[in-house]
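[Q] Does anyone have a clean structure-token version of this?
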Amino acid sequence: MSNPPITGKIPGKWTMKEPYDKSRFLSKQARATLDLLRPFTLIAPFIVSMSIMVASLVYNFRNGATISNDWWITVGQAGLTVAMVNAASNALNQATDVEADRISKSYRPIPRGIIKAESAQSLAYILYLFALLRAITINFWFGVFIFLIMIFTVMYSLPPRMKKYLFINQIWIAIPRGMLGIMAAWSVFVPKGQHPFQALPLVIGGVATTYLIGAMSTKDITDSEADKATGTHTLINTLGIKKTALVCLPFMLFPFLFIFMFTYSGYIGEIYNILSLFIFLSLFIFYLMIRGTESKTLENIHAWSIMYVQYIFFSLSFSVLTIFYTELTNIKIF
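[A] Here you go.
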């Protein structure tokens, strides 16, 4: 038997925009279900949440809390729980955005007719249920924050459908991905009898939320016409790309500058001032927003992809600073 000709293309379906051909390992329906969950967007909450959990673990241990031998299992399970909530949100969002997706994202599994909207919605509810049940078994506060994230994401897609309201939609999606997500992760290792509302996670959660209020506008650029046709009002289809970028720029810059204010006031240590360097990546995202070049493989423009990357590295940097706080504060440059 002769070998198949070499075409220079990697076989199989690797991005959502490619055709749904039956593969060696996955059926069309299985691959479509995977795309429904949008794996790329799950990387950020998974990495962010686990890094924050480890930082919380070390922070609380430094302040007298005990560490169980199976802490790494808890981190993995809680991280998967956060990712599962985001996967449920992605499925629900696609189930309720069918008309808009037929216009701007016809390559998605529901517009292509591979998965029904009702099936996607049912899958979302199942994932929400499993995530909530798993969260409350980890601890009370983690369960509370996961429940609040669920409420925000459900109300974003279903009535009153906060997604359709100008600017409120950006705030509404930034809160669960920023403050609530960080507080949920931080609460995993809070000692029994104590609450997670400590200055450090609240400050970092506030910085992340404010940043995301501005940066989340990047996801609306390719959906501009579809959103307008289906009654969803975004800054992009109201002001245009350049004006939206200018409106969102302060939200992407000022939170990193405010870190100096919080360190000066004594809410967090001075070592966290180094996180202000992420302001330069925000400027790069601003530049990419104005260009508005759409990715050939991912679902949106390049600025949207870099936005996720920035959030991941911001969280990782915060976690490293927290874990090695004592060692780093002894270095004179800080």
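[Q] Thanks! Anything notable?
[A] Residues 29-329 form a domain with the Farnesyl Diphosphate Synthase fold (CATH 1.10.600).
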